[in-house]
Amino acid sequence: MYLMYVDESGDTGREPGSSPAFVLGGLIAPSSQWNDIEKKLTDLRKSLGAQYGLKSADELRASTIMRKGPGDPARRVALIEAALKGIADIKSLKVILTAVRKKNLPPETDVFRAGWSAQLGHFDGFLARSGGRGRHSGTQGFVVADKTQTAQLDKLVRALRRERPVAEHYGWLRRKTRIHNKPLKHVIELPQHQDSKRSLMIQAADLCAYAVYQKEKPSMVVKANKGDERFLKALGPAIIRADGANRDGVHIVENAES
Question: Which Pfam families match (predicted)?
């Protein structure tokens, strides 16, 4: 069994002033190694506190660190980069990243559904490839999400177990697209919704999502300190680079056929 801890960056709105992208970062941990992973994240948290002056009561939430973390902006970028490298150094952890670029999406597109459907679909694919053969191939997975939009996510997961339309491209000379149904098969139960203050795993997922968002729409301070390039590079060894991901390992949803 695997657990995927997920946090978001950006928003799902389409009105003026909304974020240009909605990002999901998923941290995948095998349940058999959960205790060891939590200990390593706790040790990483202590190490970051000692090295950068992060207070013991502070969450490892990237946007908070950039607003009011220890030191100047360059030091805060270095802190986030070190945290992402520390996550990538935990060999049993893997990361799935999804970004919904809103600009070219049809007006009727539900951004929340598009992002979460892609993220859960990639997790389901990872589970399908992770153990067993034949009729009972694959393994099961469980989702733990930050406490936002809980009812909406629960409803979506139920729906995706019945129907998850996926675009498939085929043809060589003349590219064609067909839609087929790939419902979730390996993601069990409804997501557990966890307050990030109580979970280092959720905080680590937040850092992963922030790394992607800063590549999509970097703040002036992050860009000035090259965090938009450094963050995903630091996380790189942990990212699952499945089919359809870009060169950074991020699955991009940006049009009706994504």
Answer: DUF3800
Q: Which two tokens stand for residue 12?
A: 């799902």
Return the amino acid letter for 75. Answer: R
Residue 170's contacts (CB-CB under 8 Å, 6 or more residues apart) are 176, 177, 178
**CB 231 within 8 Å of CB 213:** no
State the alpha helices, DSSP H only, in the chain: 34-52, 62-68, 73-88, 111-128, 150-160, 200-216, 220-224, 227-235
Q: CA 209, 211, 214: angle at the middle one, nearest 5?
A: 110
| 3-state SS assignment for residue 112 | helix
What whole-number distance in Å separates Cα of residue 164 and Cα of residue 121? Answer: 8
Determine the Cα angle at 214 with ends 71 and 207, to 5°.
Answer: 65
Closest C-alpha among 59, 72, 58, 123 to residue 95: 123
Eight-class DSSP state of 180: E
Pairing of strands 21-30, 94-101: antiparallel
Query: Residue 252 pairs with which residues in a beta bridge?
Result: 99
Domains of the chain: 2-253 (3.30.420.10)
* Rounded CA separation 115/111 (Å): 6
Residue 159 has phi, psi (to 5 degrees) of -65, -40
